[in-house]
Design goal:
Elements: E1 10-13, H1 19-26, H2 29-32, E2 37-41, H3 51-60, E3 65-68, H4 82-95, E4 99-103, E5 106-110, E6 117-124, H5 130-147, E7 152-154, H6 169-180, E8 183-187, H7 188-198, H8 203-211, E9 219-224, H9 246-259, E10 264-266, H10 275-301
Parallel strand pairs: 1-2, 1-10, 2-3, 3-4, 4-7, 7-8, 8-9, 9-10
Antiparallel strand pairs: 5-6
Length: 307
């Protein structure tokens, strides 16, 4: 683990093109300290044996691993297939992750007029209603009991809005966590995308309102990412294809000031940069955390009530 002023853990999303880079870094004491952990998409390692799982096991010898699932569909009214949960449990027992996360969305459904369960292939938003809250609580309870692990639930980018929603997403996640014991994965870029698409684009205001709805002790991880620029009338898509934007870095400062030293991950999934550029983004996150949390420590020592 790296030692720094804030004591924060900073990691990066590990994707296949960077496998060689991280194995080289893990063998060099200086390079190994550039990041504190990696996060992988669980489903990419569901195969029994093979090169990908072997690499992850080697990485695990140096770095803590966070398993980030993308296909569980906790908001689905269709049950999560038993075969999916079996493979996730096998991977969990093999890797022993320090965090496990999923999204507040739905992915599983039945073909119209049949009982055949199908997967959407995407993270589909849900209306924030009491019925959907009840259903997601049932699914989270089921998965946490089966795995014997706490889940961390991520807010999502949503490209539609529902008239039926009478809870905000932040209120929905707060109640979900209070009922199940799960925690929240706060994705700053997803708040920014929804702000640009539906809330007028004042990202700092959107982040402020969102994070002050969440209890201070509810957030267990933060995600940072960037997305491609679009035309003035086009919808912003959370494609994880660009460096973290200045607006998202500012939102990160706001989140650190409210929640403190929370494990932070930089995601980059499309148009992947070199490993050094990705690690550079992680260094920037650490520098910001050191600055924000270092200031907080000084202010607390001086008896200041606000930073």
């Amino acid at each position: 683990m790296s030692v720094n002023n804030s004591g924060i853990l900073v990691g990066v999303g590990l994707r296949h093109p960077h496998f060689t880079d991280i194995l080289i870094s893990a063998k060099d004491i200086t390079l190994a300290k550039e990041i504190d952990f990696v996060e992988v998409h669980s489903e990419n390692f569901f195969g029994q044996g093979g090169a990908a799982l072997s690499v992850l096991q080697q990485v695990r010898e140096t770095y803590p691993v966070s398993l980030h699932s993308t296909s569980m569909g906790l908001g689905s009214f269709a049950d999560i297939p038993a075969s999916y949960l079996t493979r996730l449990k096998q991977l969990t027992e093999t890797i022993d992750p320090f965090l496990m996360s999923e999204h507040a969305c739905f992915t599983w459904g039945h073909l119209q007029g049949t009982l055949q369960t199908v997967h959407s292939g995407d993270l589909l938003p849900i209306a924030h209603t009491h019925d959907n809250l009840k259903r997601m609580c049932e699914q989270v309870d089921k998965v946490q009991t089966y795995l014997g692990r706490q889940l961390i639930i991520e807010n999502v980018s949503a490209y539609v809005q529902f008239d039926e929603s009478y809870l905000s997403e932040a209120e929905f996640l707060t109640q979900l966590c209070q009922r199940t014991g799960a925690k929240i994965l706060l994705d700053i870029n997803n708040i920014a995308v929804n702000s640009l698409n539906f809330e007028g684009g004042n990202i700092q205001q959107s982040v402020c309102e969102y994070i002050h709805t969440l209890p201070v002790d509810s957030v267990a991880q933060i995600h940072l990412a960037g997305c491609s620029d679009v035309g003035a009338d086009d919808m912003v898509i959370d494609d994880h294809a660009r460096p973290v934007s200045d607006a998202v870095w500012q939102g990160y400062r706001q989140a650190l000031a409210r929640f403190g030293s929370i494990p932070t991950l930089v995601e980059w999934d499309t148009d992947l940069p070199t490993w050094s550029v990705l690690v550079g983004e992680a260094k920037k996150a650490r520098d910001i955390a050191d600055a924000v949390l270092g200031i907080n420590v000084v202010s607390q020592a001086l008896g200041a009530s606000n930073v």
